[in-house]
## 1
Amino acid sequence: MDFLDILPKDYSNMNYDNIRHIRMDKEPLPHWEEINGILSTMDGEILRFLIHSKIPIENLIRFELAGRGFDKNHRWIGFSKSFEIWLKNN
């Protein structure tokens, strides 16, 4: 995943104008295209549930990544070690 090397470290200050520009990009970066595709095809009731219930999306993602057995550099390390890395408190 070469594109991971060029990504900014923090998108926490992303605003709706930033999102609008990403969505309007004629040649979006592959990761933005995937993320937008996932969200735009997801049932609206599920999206509303995630917001209304304050589901910790980061925790869901970390748990999924832990179950794949790779570290943060996408190197195979096995499931036990992967759970240690991904599920520790940040």
Note: The mean pLDDT is 90.
## 2
Amino acid sequence: MKVMKVPCRSIRYKEFPDLLFGTPPKGAPVYFDATHFIQSRGDEKRHCLADFRVAFHLWIEELCRQYGIDKEELFIRDEASGHLLIDECLALLFVVYIEPPFGVYLLERISEMLIDGFTVSDTWLVQSAGLRFTNEELTQILEHHET
């Protein structure tokens, strides 16, 4: 496994602030810190790279083929921390591995998109409502909805 210096400090998905991304000095590809995510949201006794690779083998193979990614570049170790880093293309699959209910959520949103032609996240909906209505209006709407 390659060892590179890739500080992962950027949050890409607000719903997963423990999923940290970083880029090596040469600029590409982008990696996420799998070790940090397991320590923060997973179970170090239950979750490991080997199991992830087996569980998502077909997905990993297809993503490598579709994106032309060298399998030797997919999984690296950070020189400074010793943490396992994984190419960004596997980030959401890794979240599903650690938190299977997120996979159910993704399937529901994709189904909604295919049936209705669009979908929105819960986060977007709450943010949009907050921009559109005052707190008092939202309270009234919720009270009216409950009755």
Note: The mean pLDDT is 91.
## 3
Amino acid sequence: MLEDEIETVDNEKKLFYKTLLIKCGIFCGILAGFFAVLVLFTLLGRNSWKNGLKKETSQVLKDNGIENIQLGNWVKIKTALTISVSVYEAISENTENEMYAVIIRVPTLYGPVPAVYIYSDKNGAQFIGFSHIAGKTNSHIKASSENSQIEYWKNKIPVILNSKFSR
């Protein structure tokens, strides 16, 4: 009689662990499906994100009187700053040297603001302006950030773009 009780307990444990394993498997499958959907939407939205930044950058160029520069393809850079920096080829009729338009999320006293720079090997990086900011706020941000953040990123852009060439 004692042997029957031991077998029953073992069968009960096996059934318990089997149902627990099935429940954990279903839960892990749901999590994996959720993350797969998130990754899919991220990959699908990447092109519209690049195009939106390109339009924003070209709008800042036009707003600041630089209409002779057309933006080309998005440039892939290999740096940890890719979440804060986007680089596009810049094409101008006047110059023959390679130029790039760079949009960077710059931290300011008013929060992170997208700043647009033009970079060429000949002239270095030149600050153009901030995106989607006009009027008093724009002048306040430029005045408070002129010597610190704008200059920091102006000096950092050649380093960021040199990472593009070191593949």
Note: The first helix runs from residue 2 to 63.
